[in-house]
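General statements about sequence and structure are easier to judge against a single worked case. In the encoding step, the backbone of a single protein was reduced to a row of integers, each denoting a local shape. The record that follows shows the chain in one-letter code together with its fold in token form.
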Amino acid sequence: MEKVSIIVPVYNRRNLLGRCLDSIAAQTYRPIELIVVDNGSTDGSLEFASEWGSRHVAPDFSIKIIEEHQKGVCLARNKGLTLATGDFTLFFDSDDAMRPELIERGIAAFRENPAISIVCWKCEIHKPDGTVRIPPFYPERAIECHLIHSLLRTHGYMAPTELFRSVGGWDISLLCWNDLELGMRLLLKIGDKSGYESIPGLISDISEVLVDIYQQDESITGRDFSSKEGLWEKSLAKIRKEIDQSDCRQKDYLLKIIAYREMILAAHYQKENRPDLASGLMEKVLKEYDLTVLQKILFKLLFKYTARGGRGAWKIIYYQLVISCRGSGPR
């Protein structure tokens, strides 16, 4: 039987951790290895996890409660990855919950097609105001969907443990959108091995909700963009570099997606009353990326549209970008 390692970093989530751990204990699949990495909590999270673990450990449900004193969620995840002994690994956040059949469904997908590299599923996001949404889910256009909609979000997929290790784990220098960057490295890795046209065939998708994500008023990345100005851009810059250095035949198209994301980020700065940040980033996009005159006009219009509260900007520009990059468009 394949063993699955579940790595959960924790920082001051004592009041929410029980829901997460209980959902892992309720999984219909075994064997599971749970690795909880406390990242310097001061609210009793470590003590709660240790006590919970002592009550739930079993021969087919091993539990490791460890500490990573150096602050940083990516450091905590990487420490867990070094200790993982499972055939597959799933990273999870301490304030969210798995539905009972998650691991069982993931393993079934790997067994059905041993050639696949990643299994992903839908997530339902619960906002603090009580509303819920399911992010767009287009695994047949994996790279594009990931760059636009974070297909491989932290909670949204499982992969062989050695695949995570082969790309170096999480980038500890990135404090925002680090799951976006890791997911891109994974997709580029499997693309390098197989030819990019076969990426959809290497990803198995489960088209139902298997994870509940509970957004918190206080989160690691925050609830606005301008308070972490520069950190978002750093992650996008690293992804841009990785794409540019790859042999991906979609390169031109993917770089234009990064340009689009930077322009939308600029629009969010504008919406948050930071025109200084917005104008600088917008000018950078228009100057640095290989955009046609029409694309520059569309990007400016989308900037205004998003800054005024408009949603769904990607749907507006998608087909123009596909047409302009025909021959290297989405797979």
